[in-house]
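Please decode residue identities from the backbone states below.
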């Protein structure tokens, strides 16, 4: 039976494992660009959902609002202001920010993911996961 997915982290790791398996098997596709952004998004949302503790109802409303965004810049800025000890690589996050839309739909902003692009996207996802994992480990100590 498959592991039950309960948290943003569980969903992020599920995406991560699939993305890495596809990458290691030499696959290159636009869906992988979208998945790179989506994976980072879920790791960041996990930090917000689990580690940003607020008492004020207005602050909680903002937290709920931020959990609805797909914008990695907004998510990383929110984390920086509430969890400054998280060591995010914001330039890497900016690289994959927006891929969910530009790699999935035709239009003026659409792109085709190539191998060189994917190498950079995978690196960004790894950096994001490592930063999140490092923060979680430090919280358990």
């Amino acid at each position: 039976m498959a592991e039950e997915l309960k948290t943003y982290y569980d969903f992020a790791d599920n995406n991560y494992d699939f993305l890495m398996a596809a990458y290691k098997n030499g696959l290159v596709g636009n869906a992988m660009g979208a998945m790179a952004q989506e994976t980072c998004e879920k790791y960041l949302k996990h930090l917000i959902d689990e580690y940003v503790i607020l008492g004020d109802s207005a602050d909680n409303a903002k937290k709920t609002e931020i959990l609805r965004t797909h914008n990695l810049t907004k998510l990383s800025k929110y984390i920086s202001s509430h969890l400054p000890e998280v060591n995010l690589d914001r330039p890497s996050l900016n690289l994959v920010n927006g891929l969910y839309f530009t790699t999935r739909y035709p239009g003026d902003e659409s792109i085709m993911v190539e191998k060189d692009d994917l190498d950079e996207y995978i690196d960004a996802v790894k950096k994001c996961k490592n930063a999140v994992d490092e923060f979680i480990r430090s919280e358990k100590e």
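Observation: The first helix runs from residue 8 to 24.
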